[in-house]
From TrEMBL:
Keywords assigned: Chaperone, Cytoplasm, Disulfide bond, Redox-active center, Stress response, Zinc
Gene Ontology molecular function: any one: unfolded protein binding
Cysteine disulfide partners in this protein: 240-242, 273-276
GO CC, alphabetical: cytoplasm
InterPro entries: Heat_shock_Hsp33, Heat_shock_Hsp33_C, Heat_shock_Hsp33_N
Protein's job: Redox regulated molecular chaperone. Protects both thermally unfolding and oxidatively damaged proteins from irreversible aggregation. Plays an important role in the bacterial defense system toward oxidative stress.
Main location: cytoplasm
Top-rank taxon: Bacteria
Recorded name of the encoding gene: hslO
Pfam families, per the entry: HSP33
Coiled-coil intervals: none
Family: Belongs to the HSP33 family.
GO biological process terms, semicolon-separated: protein refolding
Protein name: 33 kDa chaperonin
Amino acid sequence: MSENDMLVKALTKDQNFRVFALNATETIKQSQKNHQMTSTTTAALGRTLIASLLLANSALKGKESMTVRLNGQGPVGGMIVDADAHGHVKGYVQHANVSLPKTVDDKIDVAGAVGKDGFLEVLKNQGGAQPYTSNVPLVNGKIGDDFAYYLAKSEQIPSAIGVGVDFNKDNQVKVAGGYLIQTMPGAADDAIEKLEIKLKKLPSISTMLGENPNPEYILDVLFGKDKLDIVEHLPVSFECNCSKEKFAKSIASIGEKDLQQIIDEDHGAEVVCNFCGKQYNFSEDDLVKIMDEKEK
């Protein structure tokens, strides 16, 4: 994890807005490496990872976590992201090798890759027997607008969210990050109007993080240092909690007939984690042991 991978939480001194700014460059680099993604799929999944981190750390606390599912029926297919209240995130995209031509203004065509004929679904694991689930149709597949629409419709919080992933000439991640601004109850109308004007003129995420990798700089550009109270600095990282034991439980859930067939025909199994790409090998003896446990 880079020392620059940081989420900063702040509150405007006039109590009108709650603000989050994030540099997730190393986190998105790790994701690109794990899945050997193209710049197109890295931009799509990267934006979703960033937005999920911002959303999770605005809505969760303690041991709570959330799963974000997004599928616009575009060529990249579905994306799944897990995030928690401690700056940890992991995710994967269904088709990691998709590569689309750039748009007419020389931008990565995230909307074309994601599609917009689909949904954004959020499942919050907050300690109950069942996760709280809500979903909205996609606005345009650009990710930022889709998450803003989710916040407005499902959370009833007027919000502005910006997410960005920029690349160097070798199609490797150069900078990645974003911001989330949430309107507080009773926020002044003139303050909201001023912010809307400011956001239309705001430099891109990549420009701001390129000038200064400290996410506090994004907050400064948005509101100015003297207008904010910093609440927290939270380190951010790509973190997967997969293990051989967890996959053994998954294998144990396979029907006895199918598991016996794997033992008889393949004499073992290799399982690959969708989130981090780590491989786990189960020998024939491992599988027989799992079968024996099932039969007890």
